[in-house]
Write a structure and sequence with these properties.
The protein is α+β, with helices and mostly antiparallel strands and 163 residues long. The protein is 15% helix and 37% strand. It has one domain. Strand 2 and strand 3 form a beta hairpin. The termini are far apart.
């Protein structure tokens, strides 16, 4: 009986060794390596501001711009005077842009004798494209007296997002 036990133990050891060899023969080890890189560039900016139209005797206030701001300080002399600025927005990046929001507002307490208009911007700005819009400031023609309040400040926010 002891002999049979030893044979059974020997067979079990051999089976276990065969299973280990079989497992290693059918097991495969994979190494997976990868890298991701962002190559897109976001560069939507104001690229120019210039005076488009100016009434005789008016001053355009030397308009200035940076990548994210445009500033002007028009001086209107008489009713009917106009100063118009052309502001160019350029997509110098590689990611297309979509116009998300445009908001122009007047600060409280400004002169009722001054009004402004803007033209729309392109709703999408593909890589390499530009869009020019106008801001037109007017001394209202119907004004018959020099107003007590002589200034009006407007603020515009233009928001482009990734398309």
């Amino acid at each position: 009986m002891k002999y049979k036990k030893n044979i059974v133990i020997g067979i079990l050891v051999i089976v276990i060794l065969l299973m280990a060899v079989g497992y290693s023969a059918f097991a495969t080890h994979f190494d997976i390596n990868g890298t991701a890189e962002i190559t897109g560039e976001w560069d939507v900016k104001i690229s120019n501001i210039e005076t488009q139209e100016i009434s005789e005797g008016c001053d355009d206030g030397d308009p200035q711009y940076t990548n994210t701001t445009a500033t002007f300080n028009a001086k209107l002399k008489k009713p009917g005077d106009i100063v118009t600025y052309a502001i160019t927005v350029t997509n110098a990046g590689t990611i297309d842009a979509k116009l998300n929001n445009v908001l122009f507002k007047e600060e409280d307490g400004g002169s009722e004798a001054i009004s402004y208009e803007t033209t729309p911007l392109m709703s999408t700005l593909k890589s390499g494209e530009e869009s020019t819009f106008l801001v037109k400031l007017k001394y209202n023609q119907e004004t018959t007296e020099v107003p007590e309040i002589k200034t009006k400040t407007i603020t515009g926010i233009i928001e482009y997002v990734q398309e």
